[in-house]
């Protein structure tokens, strides 16, 4: 998928003069989102030598030039992976997902990123249940994705 998007970008010559690696990284980001396994820009940066800023610029240009529509990223897209990285039980993941969806439905998190909504949901779950989850452990794990 990413290679097809990259070929389309090169053929369109819309990003002529831009760093090829940045274009490839942005294509990988788009392909991940289209395939239902979204990654953060920071995760894409970790596997490339391109800055988040450059990937973001190429991403915007590619979306515009190829007239591609991508669905909005939600916290539910990241929930299982992040909860797994934190070694949290499925019950906590399910509760945090419900909290995140409810917050979106109630328009409480308008303007927040999906990742921030995820963090808020986990924190709210922690408060509601008094489940002990070291804030340091969470912040270290979350920082990997910011």
From TrEMBL:
Residues 2-64, 69-111 form the Transcription factor TFIIB cyclin-like domain. Pfam families: TFIIB. GO terms for molecular function: RNA polymerase II general transcription initiation factor activity; TBP-class protein binding. Keywords: Repeat, Transcription, Transcription regulation. One of its GO terms (cellular component) is transcription preinitiation complex. GO terms for biological process: transcription initiation at RNA polymerase II promoter; transcription preinitiation complex assembly. InterPro entries: Cyclin-like_sf, TFIIB, TFIIB_CS, TFIIB_cyclin. It comes from the Eukaryota. The keyword Transcription applies. PROSITE patterns: TFIIB. Gene3D superfamilies: Cyclin-like. CDD domains: CYCLIN_TFIIB_rpt1 (cd20551). Belongs to the TFIIB family. This is Transcription initiation factor IIB. It comes from Heterorhabditis bacteriophora (Entomopathogenic nematode worm). The lineage of its organism: Eukaryota, Metazoa, Ecdysozoa, Nematoda, Chromadorea.
């Amino acid at each position: 998928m990413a290679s097809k998007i990259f070929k389309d970008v090169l053929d369109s010559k819309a990003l002529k003069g831009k760093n090829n690696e940045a274009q490839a990284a942005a294509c990988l980001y788009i392909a991940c989102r289209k395939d239902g396994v979204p990654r953060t820009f920071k995760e894409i940066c970790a596997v490339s030598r391109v800055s988040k800023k450059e990937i973001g610029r190429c991403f915007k240009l590619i979306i515009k030039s190829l007239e591609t529509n991508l669905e909005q990223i939600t916290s539910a897209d990241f929930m299982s992976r992040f909860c797994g990285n934190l070694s949290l039980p499925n019950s906590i993941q399910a509760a945090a997902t419900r909290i995140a969806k409810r917050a979106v439905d109630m328009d409480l998190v308008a303007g927040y990123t999906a990742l921030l909504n995820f963090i808020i949901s986990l924190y709210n779950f922690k408060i509601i249940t008094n489940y002990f989850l070291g804030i340091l452990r969470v912040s270290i794990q979350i920082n990997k994705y910011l």
